[in-house]
Task: structure prediction
Amino acid sequence: VFDQNDGLYGGEQSFLDWREQTYASWIVDDLTQMASAKALSTNVGHFKALTLVSQLAEEFEQKQLAAKYGKWANALKRAINDKLWLADKGLYSSLTAGHFSQQPLHKFDWLGQSLAIITGVADEAKSRRIMSQYPHGNMGAPVIFPQQPVVPVYHNRAIWPFVTAYGLTAASKYRQVAVADEAFNTLMRGAALNLSNMENLEWLSGQAMWLQMDNPAQSGPVINSKYQLWSVAAYLNM
Result:
């Protein structure tokens, strides 16, 4: 749903859609908060759709449509940068608070940051800042940051190869060698040690199954698979 007040599209985060993993624990019982929040990756997805539609209209010589959708895309790009960019952090907020607050939260995700760079929502200065600011562990960039305590491993405390691949694509756009090197290491290590292209990995150990003996409920990833298609695609993209 498009909001005329702030120029952003609302709704659940496009990839990080497991509410117990990436939202506050109380939101499970108050889904209107989640539905009225605005998410970075969702809005970047809409921006890309609008730019593609504008380009298609241009190809079919429908000048008015091309101009209309191009105008919408530019307005959405401005709104994303006005509402979700946190200059003090050098990162885009993953989402806003719901309902009437709409404040950008200090929660961040690697997919949203990477998509903002790849699509051109982030200019070169912001892109370089993102690359220098988003935290990496010894095994690579986590899907979200900061990690959520007492939440099992899945999106939380995890590395997803396909998200790493988007980070690599973003790094290559502005020749960010250190970030690219980390992505290469993450993708090759994950495939080599598991002899497969796993769905996800625990972010500090890089393991496909990480056991926390004193608290099994926090072990994980709670869902995983071998030969995951988008992990295979991520490796090929590398």
